[in-house]
Amino acid sequence: xxxxxxxxxxxxxxxxxxxxxxxxxxxxxxxxxxxxxxxxxxxxxxxxxxxxxxxxxxxxxxxxxxxxxxxxxxxxxxxxxxxxxxxxxxxxxxxxxxxxxxxxxxxxxxxxxxxxxxxxxxxxxxxxxxxxxxxxxxxxxxxxxxxxxxxxxxxxxxxxxxxxxxxxxxxxxxxxxxxxxxxxxxxxxxxxxxxxxxxxxxxxxxxxxxxxxxxxxxxxxxxxxxxxxxxxxxxxxxxxxxxxxxxxxxxxxxxxxxxxxxxxxxxxxxxxxxxxxxxxxxxxxxxxxxxxxxxxxxxxxxxxxxxxxxxxxxxxxxxxxxxxxxxxxxxxxxxxxxxxxxxxxxxxxxxxxxxxxxxxxxxxxxxxxxxxxxxxxxxxxxxxxxxxxxxxxxxxxxxxxxxxxxxxxxxxxxxxxxxxxxxxxxxxxxxxxxxxxxxxxxxxxxx
Length: 447
Ligand code: ADP
What we know:
The chain is α+β, with helices and mostly antiparallel strands. It is built from ten helices and twelve strands. Adenosine-5'-diphosphate (ADP) binds next to helix 9 and helix 10.
């Protein structure tokens, strides 16, 4: 909805174009446009006026404002030349950029050019009183001469040029700042990449040193294993000979020994037997550590393995108060190395029997997720929590723990854990002193 026109005027001759330009600027100023927008509107108006005057007929100019929606200033220029739109449209393309909308249409009795521009949000509200006030002021306006308008136009041009120059200067300053910043960023980037390169070089050197150290460590460890393997191997023959000779000496078919001699020969034989088991354990461990033990993969029948363990270990279960139970295996088959697996389980069961005076020692197996878990549970002496890792160290024996039979070397568990590793699994222990221990061997179903 547009309200009562703010102002009407007429363009008859070329001079009127100047007057309309001036009027347009005044109207724009009155309704609240800032200087730059006033110039835009005045310029658009004088351009349209100039084109209309060229057609040689009088044109009506009407200024209105819309009150609804966004307040907008409308200017309509009508002249009685029908179908003049085709001539005007191409010439008004540039002009349309100065305002929000510009349309050329047919109107009674000829052609109409409609222009609009939204009022800035800061412009005062256009209530009827205000409109009346503006109308009065515009009516009292004394139109300047074309010369006045020309000088005004010149002033505006100079102001516009100044603004352009200021903007150009701003742009140049911004560019300079940008260049400066870019230089700073580049310098920072170079510094960072230098530092990175430096750090990388350090890391590479460190890794090289680490590699070298681990090669040295591996060589040393291999040398140790080789030495152990060789020494134990060399020791085995003479120790076995000592045991044999001892047996020979105490044999009934040999010359009778005195009671004291007999006792001493027994001592020698006992010590040599202990030594032989130590040498054997050392040899096993050294072989495993040197990577000389390899798994011989096959389908293992657990029922058979359990049966064999039950048979061979039953004689060791000498404590009358201990229930020795090898359960029926809940998993019947497993891809593994039968000999190594049996060796590990035998080792754990022997330990359990050695350290259990009453209650039970029990071997079981169950499938847990993707693993097959063997458990050797006893109700024996138990192991303090802080020693659960140490018992897997070579030669370590829990202080004060006393085996019910045999001495032990402290090499059984490290060896067993190594074998489990070769089988692709892991071994863990949970134990409480005075209550018992559970050793769990977890092997993958498909190694
Ligand atoms: P060894 O049995 O020859 O001494 P191991 O390496 O097999 O050597 O075991 C190390 C130590 O761990 C044992 O000396 C013992 O103190 C402790 N240990 C192992 N198994 C058990 C168990 N089932 N109950 C209590 N203590 C155990």
